[in-house]
Structures are given as C-alpha cells and as structure tokens.
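agent: user wants the structure for DUF5130 family protein from Nocardioides aquaticus. delegating to structure tool.
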Amino acid sequence: MPVPAGDRSSHLTGADRTLLDDTIRRAEQACRAEISVFVGTAEGGARAFATSLHNSLVAPSRSILVMVDPTARALEIVTGGWVRRHLSDKQVELVALTMQSAFAEGDLVGGLRRGVTMLGEHARAPRTLHSSTED
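agent: tool returned. relaying tokens verbatim.
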C-alpha cells in the first residue's frame, strides 16, 4: 500500500499511481509482506525520514518501504525483521542499483515498478517440499 505524500502528485500522474498500485499488490501477494512507496520530499536526512515512515506502518516487521526523493536524488529501502529473514542486504542493493539506473534514464515509474517487483520476488519465502515417512 503506497504511503501518502503531500507533493507526490508532482512526481506521479494518476495513471502512474494506478500502475504502481497494481505492481505493489502483485508483489505483496508474492512475498506476503506489506510494500509501501513514498515519492516526495524527505524531511531531514533521507535515511532517518525513511526509517520514521517505515516505523509508522501498521506492521513494520512484515513491511518494506521504498522512499524516493527525486529532488534530492535520494533512494532508501527499509525492511522489517520478518522480511529480512527472506531478503538479504545484497538483494536490496541489487534492487536499489536497478532502480537508480532507471531513475538516471528519467524513468521514475518504470524504476519503481521494476524495484517493487524484484523486492516481491526476492522477499518470497522459499518453497519447501514436505515428504511423508509413511509407506
């Protein structure tokens, strides 16, 4: 679920928000975590602001927050404890690099959608096969 932002409308159109919302919904279904996206001005330091937003979510432990401040060229991804059991720091770094590449090309929405999709795929708990010992 996207996090509301006061100046978000200046960065994303209604169509952009609809596409992003659909991407978030699919990623959440894949990984069973809450994914929120904030696009706007970070108040204070970007990391502290993103952490504050993440901590204000309903279930921070099971949440991923992506915060992008296009004006400051800042990107922060904050993950909760439950999510970190399935999503490594290296995977988050890869997602961030992918998003930054798209942002550098001027593709904010495409970068967000690719990043959210990747987070959903990487944060998915591994499937386990259960075997029965009965004959």
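agent: one observation worth passing along. The chain has one domain: 8-122.
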